[in-house]
Amino acid sequence: MTDHPLSARDRILGNVRAALKATENDNARTFMVQKRLKLHKRNLIPSRAELPMESKVRLFQTTLEGQSASVAKIAAADALPGAVAQYLASQNLEKTIRTGDDPIFEGLDWDGAMITRSIGATAGDDPVALSMANYGVCETGTLFLTSGPRNPTSLSFLPMTHIIAVNERDIVGSYEEAWDGIRLASDMERRGASGLPRTVNLISGASRTGDIEQTIILGAHGPKNLHVIIIGKA
Amino acid sequence: MKPLSHKFRENAGKALDNPTLQTALKNVPEGFVAKRAKARSKLPEFDALTEQAQQIKSHALAYLDLYLEAYEKQVKASGGHVHWAGSGTDACNIISGICRDAGARLVAKSKSMVTEEIALNAHLEASGFEVIETDLGEYLIQIRGEVPSHIIGPAIHLTKEQIVDDFRRIHVDLPTDRVLDEPESIVNEARLILRDKFLNADVGITGANFLVAETGAAVIVTNEGNADLVQTLPEVHIVVATIEKIVPTTEDATTILRVLARSATGQEISTYTTFTSGPRRESDPDGPRETHVILIDNGRTELLASEFHEVLRCIRCGACMNHCPVYQSVGGHAYGWTYPGPIGAVLTPSHVGIREGYHLPHASSFCGACEEVCPMGIPLPALMRRWRNRAYGEGLTSLRQRLAMKTWLWFAKRPRAYHFATSIFIPVFRMVGRRERLARFLPLPKGWVRHRAFPLPEGSTFQRQWKRRRAGEVQQ
After folding, report:
1. Helix (H) or strand (E) holding B7
2. Do B287 and B420 fall into the same domain?
3. Where are the alpha helices (DSSP H) in B30-87?
4. What is the CATH code of the structural domain delimited by A48-231?
């Protein structure tokens, strides 16, 4: 930026160290930081996250419903096209959906449910998207979705209606459990140094704004309708 | 932005006399304050979580240099670029440089207080770019040519009627006879107008709620989803953040997230929380092809070295201003710079100088509500008091105030003289006060006595009554 002999980076880091009265190569400090980053220990987890499975699913569902989402439960994945069709009919929507290439969608009978399904990211002209969540977190009714060909990020934000399917076995108590799972999957896929996909989206309801006199209005920029389908164990 | 904090008294007066603003401000205690209280009561661990959140930020600040280096390394490893900017001007120049290199025309932004602080929009517009704010509140104030009056509800000073008028004035391409009287129709219109901007923007700019050293992720929280469109659709994404946004790990960010939304809007969690790092991966079907992070100092290292360093724990939830009786009465614009309310009263003088920001740390009754609700345990009243001391030390306090304080100090340190003086003054006050309103006689600031009369003294000082009572007790 200027002809100062030090770069902005060196100046800022130098000023930070001066403010902290720290030196550049302090092994004790470095060790402390590396240990914390490597262990990434959990902090306090609210007790509401520690529930038996059945209660978890119930809490997940009621919390989401309180956050202006609708929730349906199906016994197994092969009931998904029917559940999607039923929801679309209830909303008076055309039976056309956009999805990623998640293998779970592949073997399903979409034609049988009269649903036209296309695959890929969206440029904004798809009214309905269906995504598969990696996890559902019961403590705040939050869905974790990770970016990639299975789950294009744009599907979660551009369509007016977003349907998210989640396996019941992937409903966990706390955010931390979801993070552990995502880290593990990332390691197996060798996602690179950061250990994570580009984007992890935590979605906890429909898009909303309170910017007009604090009145909550849905569908600000993202989906106005969020419908969650829990896929049972069978 | 050019500070107007020296005009606080004048602008606060105008705000109190503005009936439209007063109507809009009623929504603060009815909305944010009530909702936060409810969210807190629903989570038994809330207070314990705020304690951990404070420890996390204090730890991150104590090792800030190392966490910044770790963060930089991870961003680079995921394919992103990192830029360091000492000042707001440096940051603006770096950002316009990136936009120029990208051949950009339209820049879409999501809400970011630091970009307000460094006046990024004005700089980008002067450099020939079209800039559009996409958060509804920010969009509203952008079309009005205003600045935010609240850090999480930038348009909280506006009423629905004002917004409707602005939309009719600005959106001239839409039919004039359209119905636009309900918040829902206003939001739909904004969605329609801004959708086009999202799809055509060349560069997206977001702030960051946290930067995670462990993974190089930037964490962004919204309810509208606008930040996600801004960071997913354009080819280039720029994260603008000050250096104190660093937290060590994903778990640490997660803990702070548990207190952020509850303290801010009273939600259990904001609708959208996004962790993002680097450009789209090889197999990704969407996302930006190029990503940049601008790490800005702009006075933070000075704060870190100062007696105000605790303010760097701030996560910008807005709880302090929501609960502040002064903010609730005058709104955010009277404060005259980017950050209003108690947090602004501490931050503003450090950025614009105590001479310009003199009134802000003085505009407090020290009721302590801000410190009580601050999830990061920032001792705001104590920090404001430090600014008052500095102002006094620099001779900025008025001669009248200084004389009054010195006189009081003289008496306070000399109990005999104090008792003697009060024993004379009180009978005199009683005599004069019986004849006419004491208010006119008292040497108090006019603003105080204009609206209330000073009560008549009881006839004897507390000390004297105490002595008499003690004597009586002993006799019995």
Report:
1. none
2. no
3. 34-42, 46-62, 64-77
4. 3.40.50.10420
Taking alpha carbons only, the member of B237, B234, B200 closest to residue B218 is B237
Selected residue with higher pLDDT from B469 and A86: A86
Chain A residues with beta carbon closer than 8 angstroms to that of B278: 194, 198
Residues B241 and B112 in one domain: yes
Residue ending a domain, choose from B272, B301, B330: B301
Q: Which residues 190-219 in chain A show a CB within 8 A of chain B?
A: 191-215, 217, 219
Kindly state the tokens that stand for B472.
């009586």
Q: CA-CA distance, B316 to B314, in Å (whole number)?
A: 6
Residues of A in contact with B308 (CB under 8 A): none
**Per-residue pLDDT tens digits for B245-297:** 999 999 999 999 999 999 999 999 999 999 999 999 999 999 999 999 999 99
3-state secondary structure A136-154: EECCCCEEEEECECCECHH
Contacting residues of B for A67, CB less than 8 Å apart: 268, 271
Q: Bridge-partner residues for B69, per DSSP?
A: none
Question: Of the residues B258, B281, B301, which one is the last residue of a structural domain?
Answer: B301
Alpha carbons A6 and A133: distance in angstroms, whole number: 47
Most A CBs within 10 Å, among B228, B291, B303, to test the A interface: B228
| B419 occurs within a structural domain | yes
Q: Count up the domains in chain B and report the number.
A: 2
Q: Which of B55, B75, B224, B270 to mutate to test the interface with A (most CBs of A within 10 A)?
A: B224
Contact, B287 vs A152, CB < 8 A?
A: no
Residue B162's domain comprises: 43-301
Query: Measured between alpha carbons, how far is residue A84 from residues A68, A96, B423 in Å?
Result: 18, 10, 85
In a domain, B343, yes or no: no
Coil vs helix vs strand at B220: strand
pLDDT (average), residues A99-116:
96
Q: Which of B77, B191, B286 sits opposite A219 (nearest CB)?
A: B191
Q: What interface predicted TM-score (ipTM) does this complex get?
A: 0.96
Closest-approach residue (CA) in chain B for A38: B214
